[in-house]
Amino acid sequence: MSVITLTTDFGLEDQYVGSLHGVIVSLNPQARISDISHLIPSYDIAQASYVLGGSYFLFPKGSIHVVVVDPGVGSARKPILVQTENYFFIAPDNGVLSLALAREKIVRIIHLTNSDYFRSKLSHTFHGRDIFSPVAAHLSKGVSPDVFGPELTCVTRLDLYAHQVQSKKIRARIMAIDKFGNAVLYFHEDDFKEKMRKNSFVLKVGSHQIKKLNDAYWQVKKGDPILLFGSLGYLELATNQGSLAKKWKLKRGMVVELCL
After folding, report:
1. 22 half-sphere exposure, CB direction, 13 A CA radius
2. Less crowded by CB within 10 Å, the N or C end of the chain?
3. Is 229:185 a contact under the CB 8 Å cutoff?
4. Looking at the domain covering 3-152, what would its CATH class be?
5. CA distance from start to end of the chain
């Protein structure tokens, strides 16, 4: 039986999260539901992408990841199902799957159009309950992805997750500022760690720069800046027991430059 995960910006005060659970277990009483987060800031597609991208791979292969951060609900944006070699993702096609799909091989993308697998009464403002949840439940019962609608050729991706290469300079962006004030950069250790270990480098952001790569926060004095690959495998600008984002006025989307 597949695990179904839920990631939303619904909060915990209202009935919205419970509604998703109710729809799923009504269609599949044996469903195993795991809540990744329901505290994504309202309408914050980029933060939802980051939270999902940092957690989806920890679940068993075949898990179904449902993401509902959907400011365009009821518009022309498409509800989609993405099957990769390891997982299924159900979400609006608004870029919310960008980070997860950056390191997954896509098998197929389905436009969810077959209303036989939706709730019978469809709201224009709650597709999480009326489309995404029932599709996830049916999928968890073994329904083939093919029946949910026609295939698409591409998905929407956020600009946060891209590199600009110019000679030995590689530009990327700060993709998130975490709770501790660490700036998480779109440089993954699989692509950059060995190069940074073997070569001298300079990482520049605004008027600041760092030339040394560390392994853990304790390796610098309290309050000092540090550059390291964090637990998600992405490069982080941080400080020991403090917020570098506040100290250096860092924000999501800022450009950083790695000179190798």
Report:
1. 8
2. N
3. no
4. alpha beta
5. 47
DSSP code, position 129? I
Going from the C-alpha of 21 to that of each of 16, 33, 253, the distances in angstroms are 9, 8, 34
pLDDT value, residue 199:
84
pLDDT confidence tier of residue 237, bands split at 50, 70 and 90? very high
Q: Is the confidence at residue 1, as pLDDT, over 80?
A: no
Q: How many residues does the chain have?
A: 260
Domain with CATH 3.40.50.10790 in the chain: 3-152
Per the prediction, the chain carries an average pLDDT of 95
Query: Which residues of the chain are in CATH 2.40.30.90 domains?
Result: 164-259
203-215 pLDDT, tens per residue?
A: 999 999 999 999 9
Query: Would you say 258 and 170 are in contact if contact means Cβ atoms under 8 Å apart?
Result: yes
Other CB atoms closer than 10 Å to residue 79's CB: what's the count?
A: 23
Tell me the CA distances in angstroms from 70 to 75, 90, 144, 149, 247, one per residue in order: 10, 12, 25, 20, 32
Least Cα distance to 174 among 103, 232, 235 occurs for 235
Separation CA 96–CA 155 (nearest Å)? 10
Taking the alpha carbons of 97, 102, 103, 105 in that order, is the dihedral positive or negative?
A: positive
Percent of the chain with pLDDT over 90: 90
pLDDT tens track for 156-176: 999 889 888 888 899 999 999
CA 53 to chain centre: 3
Encoded tokens for 126? 């709650």
Pair of tokens at residue 101: 């799909």
CATH number of 164-259: 2.40.30.90
